[in-house]
């Protein structure tokens, strides 16, 4: 064995040696996307689940290529190796179908990646990719379809729902959701309640669809039990962002709820795309108010970071609901360079 080559027996027990995609899950954040539920097995024999987006695979591959790819693949030098091929980016099409179609290729990619020389397996970027973070360990998978034996048939008996004892509400007005996270309601429909998102929003299910909706559009028939009003249990956690569209004719105020932690830092592109969708306006620019009340234009990810850092310095000075982002977005028409003198 070469001196600079690791012996497999000497590898740490927490090194990943195999990984298989168990399922995909849709995440309804500022941008809706799918992530892969991956079962990882370590050298020590332990198993756990991690959750990764395709772009995290892509970023890992770029890092590994820059460090280990030989200039001449036919003559790899010391401490270099030929990496497996990562399936390319797809820019158009149904997101679920794209994610499903990538599963076989990504499984092959991970198998070949973890089958490279043992010295490669201790790379820090590779170890962090397959490491189970606190967020990974706290998340409950919705399903693990691809870990079930394909020949095994399991008979599932669904418990009967007592419609008269379930928490529920009746829609008093039509409501059209702003994204996949929000339900569409028609007057007279009965919504079965799952949890309270905040003082103004609830989560429920109607017509085999699950999502959130404003409480002001419904009449509560049977309220949620006290233990569910704080969002306990395995239901996804929502955070709400207050945003404004400032125009010469006035201010349009919206609350946008997403399945994201309050600590997340979305990208500029994600925020711009979401605001265009919420206000149905393409000619839009993003701004935030500084501690003096002036509008500051947001142009890139660094500006988003500055907005979030400044909002943290103002926490405690402005009273907000527990699950509301400490920062707010003020959208203006990009074609209008004036600052509207409107109180938000």
UniProtKB/TrEMBL annotation:
GO terms for molecular function: phosphatidylinositol binding; superoxide-generating NADPH oxidase activator activity. It comes from the Eukaryota. It is found in: Cytoplasm, Cytosol; Endosome membrane. The keyword Thylakoid does not apply. Residues 238-334 form the PB1 domain. Residues 14-137 form the PX domain. InterPro entries: NADPH_Oxidase/PX-Domain, p40phox, PB1-like, PB1_dom, PX_dom, PX_dom_sf, PX_p40phox, SH3-like_dom_sf. Its main location: cytoplasm. One of its GO terms (cellular component) is endosome membrane. GO terms for biological process: phagocytosis; respiratory burst; superoxide anion generation. Residues 164-223 form the SH3 domain. It is a peripheral membrane protein. Keywords: Cytoplasm, Endosome, Lipid-binding, Membrane, Phosphoprotein, SH3 domain. The keyword Phosphoprotein applies. Subunit of the phagocyte NADPH oxidase complex that mediates the transfer of electrons from cytosolic NADPH to O2 to produce the superoxide anion (O2(-)). In the activated complex, electrons are first transferred from NADPH to flavin adenine dinucleotide (FAD) and subsequently transferred via two heme molecules to molecular oxygen, producing superoxide through an outer-sphere reaction. This is Neutrophil cytosol factor 4. It comes from Sparus aurata. The lineage of its organism: Eukaryota, Metazoa, Chordata, Craniata, Vertebrata.
């Amino acid at each position: 064995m070469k001196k600079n080559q690791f012996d497999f027996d000497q590898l740490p027990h927490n090194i990943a040696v195999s990984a298989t995609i168990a399922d995909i899950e849709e995440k309804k954040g500022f941008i809706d996307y799918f992530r892969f539920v991956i079962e990882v097995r370590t050298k020590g024999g332990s198993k756990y689940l991690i959750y990764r987006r395709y772009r995290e695979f892509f970023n890992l591959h770029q890092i590994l290529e820059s460090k280990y790819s030989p200039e001449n693949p036919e003559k790899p030098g010391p401490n270099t190796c030929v990496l497996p091929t990562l399936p390319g980016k797809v820019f158009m099409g149904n997101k679920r179908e794209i994610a499903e179609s990538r599963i076989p290729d990504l499984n092959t990619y991970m198998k070949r990646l973890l089958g490279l020389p043992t010295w490669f397996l201790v790379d820090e970027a590779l170890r962090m990719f397959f490491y189970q973070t606190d967020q990974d360990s706290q998340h409950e998978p919705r399903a693990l379809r691809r870990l079930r034996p394909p020949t095994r048939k399991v008979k599932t008996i669904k418990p009967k729902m007592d419609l008269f004892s379930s928490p529920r509400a009746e829609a008093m007005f039509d409501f059209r959701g702003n994204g996949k996270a929000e339900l569409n309601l028609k007057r007279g429909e009965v919504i079965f309640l799952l949890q309270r998102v905040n003082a103004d929003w609830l989560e429920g299910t109607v017509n085999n669809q699950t999502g959130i909706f404003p409480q002001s559009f419904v009449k509560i028939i049977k309220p949620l039990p006290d233990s569910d009003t704080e969002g306990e249990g395995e239901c996804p956690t929502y955070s709400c962002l207050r945003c404004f569209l400032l125009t010469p004719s006035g201010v349009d105020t919206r609350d946008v709820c997403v399945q994201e932690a309050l600590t997340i830092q979305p990208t500029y592109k994600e925020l711009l795309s979401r605001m265009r969708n919420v206000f149905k306006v393409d000619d839009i620019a993003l701004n935030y108010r500084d501690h003096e009340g002036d509008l500051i234009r947001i142009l890139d990810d660094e500006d988003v970071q500055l907005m979030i850092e400044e909002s943290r310095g103002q926490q405690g000075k402005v009273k907000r609901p527990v699950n509301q982002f400490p920062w707010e977005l003020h959208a203006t028409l990009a074609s209008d360079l004036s600052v509207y003198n409107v109180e938000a």
